[in-house]
Amino acid sequence: MANKSVSKAKALKIIQNVLLIIVGILVACSVIQPDIIKYLLGIALVVYGAFFLFRSVYDTKSFIMMFGVAGGILLGIGIATMCDYLPLIQLMQRFIYIALIVLGGLLCLDAIVKFVTKKNNAGIFELVIGVILLVLGILFVALEQDMAEFCWIAFGVVLALYGLYNLIITLIALSKRA
Predict the structure, then answer these.
(1) Which of 13, 94, 115, 142 is surrounded by the fewest CB atoms within 10 Å?
(2) What is the DSSP string of 47-75?
(3) 44 class by beta-carbon count within 10 Å (0-12 exposed, 13-18 middle, 19+ buried)
(4) Which pLDDT score is estimated for 1?
(5) Sign of the C-alpha dihedral, residues 135, 97, 155, 38?
(6) Is the pLDDT of residue 178 over 70?
């Protein structure tokens, strides 16, 4: 019985990672038509909100558990963004700038820890990615007017790569169990 709940959780994690990859690709491609970003962001929030609502009902048979409440909030914010009721784009851009800096700094810090613990191969990869994200985030903050349109490309690429990384880790874990 425990294996069934693990396989359900793994299946939901795979779906979530595939959604991250799709949303990341769509956001990265939104530079073609900048006005479409509010719709992509709104649709992404609606899809994730619906996914979390489904997950809440599927896991707990209730809408008011943690995933259900988060899903409802994301669903509402997504609809408000698409209807221009909530100007979320500028706030999200600044959030992305700070998130890139923080994520880059954390990856650099983690790489240093891996160097100290003699796990050099993983540390080198994390250090390179961390420095790239850190520099990119600082550039966005310093040159906000000139770099704003590229923010969404960077955010989409980071989302897609994160989803791909988690998907690969999940699939490797599944293959080792089988």
Answers:
(1) 142
(2) HHHHHHHHHHHHHHS-SSSHHHHHHHHHH
(3) buried
(4) 43
(5) negative
(6) no
